[in-house]
Amino acid sequence: QVQLVESGGGLVQAGGSLRLSCAASGRTFSRYPMGWFRQAPGKEREFVAAVSYIGGSTYYADSVKGRFTISRDNAKNTVYLQMNSLKPEDTAVYYCAADQSLSGTIQTMLSRGSYYWGQGTQVTVSS
Fold first, then answer.
1. Cα separations (Å) of 106 from 52, 76, 101?
2. What is d(CA 84, CA 102) in angstroms, rounded to the nearest whole number?
3. How far apart, in whole angstroms, are the C-alpha atoms of residue 125 and residue 74?
4. Distance between CA atoms of residues 17 and 3, nearest Å
């Protein structure tokens, strides 16, 4: 079992920046890919970004590519999402996710779609 706790959400004006953090416990953090998803009101949860378990590979949704950066610090059991040039359409609850299988790739994680989830953190971007 994995416990994930997100932090760093808040209210920001369009064009601003936020950095989300996700602290993990309960399993060897460095052995599994991690990701960020988001869910806006009335919409389904959608993929935002993912990072491999070593941290050398990343993958982004087209809507955030070039604006968001995912990274991880395995020594701190933490994954980050740096969000720049925020837009009102980025408003959502952001969820941290850990692959339920160890040592997979980003592609296998996304194709399996089996995750441990955090409780979410609200990001609101005002226009």
1. 6, 21, 11
2. 30
3. 30
4. 26
Structure tokens at 35: 């990701």
Do the strands 10-13 and 121-126 form a parallel or antiparallel pair, or are they unpaired?
Answer: parallel
| Cβ 7 vs Cβ 16: under 8 Å | no
> Are the C-beta atoms of residues 117 and 101 closer than 8 Å to each other?
no
74: left (phi over 0), alpha (psi -120 to 50) or beta: alpha
What whole-number distance in Å separates Cα of residue 15 and Cα of residue 88?
9
pLDDT tens digits for range 69-118: 999 999 999 999 999 999 999 999 999 999 988 888 999 999 999 999 99
